[in-house]
Amino acid sequence: MKKGFTLIEIAVVVLVIAILAAIALPQYRKSLERSRAAEAFDILTEIRNKQESRDLLGTGTAKGYTVKFSDLGEVIAGKTSTTNTLDTKLFSYVLSDNPYPQAYAKRKDLDYSIVQTKGYQDSALCCIGKDCDMVDNVLKGCEKTACPTTCAAGYKRTGYFFSEDGPCCEAKTSCPTTCPTGQKRSSVQYTEDGACCVAKTSCPTTCPTGQQRTSVQYSEDGACCVSKTSCPATCPTGQKRTSAQYYEDGACCVSKTACPTTCPTGQQRTSVQYYEDGACCVTKTACPATCPTGQKRTSAQYYEDGACCTAKTACPATCPTGQERTSVQYSEDGACCQTKTCGSGQTLVGGVCKTACPATCPTGQERTSAQYSEDGACCKAKTCPTGQTLVGGVCKTACPATCPTGQERTSAQYSEDGACCKAKTCPTGQTLVGGVCKTSCPITCPIGQQRTTVQYTEDGACCKSKPCPLVPQSIIDDCNNASYAVWNESECGCRCCNKQHGNPYLEPSTGIVRCLPTGVAAYLCAV
C-alpha cells in the first residue's frame, strides 16, 4: 500500500509558501520600483545640466531657464515636445517656474513624484506622495518637509513642494455673492473649484404652437411663453378666415375682396360675389405652351384669337458649299448647316473634303492629272474594278437606278460626273415632309368651322364643323314643329325642308318666319 500526503501536510506547505510570498513580494516590488525610478533620476539630472548650461552659456533669447522642452534639444532619445511636459512609459516630466525654476517627474501608475529640492541650483532629489516608501532609500538630500498633497477646506495648494520653501497652502478666492446680468450663482464657493456663475437658460425665440413669448428673458425669471387666445371657427358674412390661429398672431378674419363689375378683355363675369368664393371671371381657352412636332408658337394667347401654332420652316435638304447638314430639322430649332470638317488626311477644297493623290501609283498604273482622289482617278488602270466601267480612260461608277426617299435622279450617268441624286423639290405651296410633298393646312377655317390638329391636307381634314352655340330648346322645337321646316344642326339654324321653298325669312308685318317658294303661297316655317 502506497503512502501519500495528508491534507494537513499540504495545508502547511501552502501556508509556508504564502508567508514567504507575503514577505518577498513587497521587497521585490520595491526593488523593481527603485530600478524604474533610476530613469527619473538620470533624466532630471540631464534636464538640470541642460538648464544650467543654457543659463550660463546661452545668448539672446536662448539664455536663461525655459519651460519648453523644445528649447533644451533632445533630452530623451527619440522623444520631443513643444510644451512643458514630456511623457515616457513610466513618468511625465514637467518644467515649471512656479515658485522657482525647477523640474519634476510624476509617476504614472503610482502616487509619488520625484522633485528637485532647490530647483536647478541643487542636485538633491526628494520624493513626495504616499508611495514614496518604495524609493526613499535611493534618494539623497531629502532633509525638507514635504507639503501635504491636500489642503484644508477653503485652501488650495501653492507651487511649493516643501514647507521650508514657502507656504504649502493658500486661501482660495471666495465666489462673489451676485453674478452679472444673464448669469446665476452655482453651488461652487471658491473660484478655484469651478465656475461661480453659470449662464441662465435663455428663453426660446419662438414658443410652441398655441403660445406666445412673454417679456421674460430667462426661464429662471418666470414663464417664457403663455397660452394664446384661439380664433373663432367661422367669420361674419363678407369676411373670411385668415391663416392666424390665435388673436395674438393677427386678425382672425378679414374682409373678402369683392369681384369687379367688369372683366378684362377675353373674360366674362361669373355669379361669384367675392374672389375668395371662386372665379369672378372665366378666361378664354389658353393656347398650349408647346406645339406639335413641326410647329411653333404664334403670338396668340387664346384659341379664339387665331392659330396658336404655325408650321416651322423646314431645313433645306442641302447646304451651301463648305457646309454640311446638322441633325436639326427646322430652322427655328437651331442651325441647319455647320462648317464642314474633314477627316484625318483630308483637305477642304472648294467646300469639299478631298484626299490628295499619292505621288506614286501601284504597279501597272500611272498618275493622272488629278490632284485629289475626289476629282477623279489618281492612277490609270488597265482594268476597272467590279462595278465600274472604263469611260474615256477613267473608271467610273454607274449611278443607281433609284434614289433614297426624298431625292430624285439627275441626268448624270456616273457618280464621278456629278451627283446621281438631288433633293426632291416640291411645287409652290408645298413642303417636303418625310420625302413626300405635302400642302400645309390653312391657318384659319371658313365660318362655322375650326382647325383640327392635322398639319397637312394629305394627312386628313384641316377643318371641322364648329359645335353650335347653346340655343334654347324651345326655338329648336318650334322649328321642328313648323310646316316645311326643320332645325339644321350643321348650319345652326332653321331651314326649309324642301330646297324649292328657299330660305326662311321673317315676315315684318306678322313676325312669322315663312318658307316662300317662287310663285307659290308662303308656308309657315317657324316662329
Summarize this structure briefly:
The chain is an alpha+beta fold. The chain has helices at residues 7-57, 473-481, and strands at 85-87, 91-96, 102-107, 113-120, 125-128, 155-157, 169-171, 183-185, 197-199, 211-213, 225-227, 239-241, 253-255, 267-269, 281-283, 295-297, 309-311, 323-325, 337-339, 346-349, 352-355, 365-367, 379-381, 388-391, 394-397, 407-409, 421-423, 430-433, 436-439, 449-451, 463-465, 485-488, 493-496, 505-507, 512-515, 523-526.
Structure description:
With 527 residues, the protein is an alpha+beta fold. Among the domains are: 164 residues, no CATH class; 64 residues, no CATH class; 54 residues, no CATH class. 11% of the residues lie in helices and 25% in strands. The chain contains two helices and 36 strands. The protein has a five-stranded antiparallel sheet, with helices on one face. β32 and β33 form a beta hairpin. The C terminus is likely disordered.
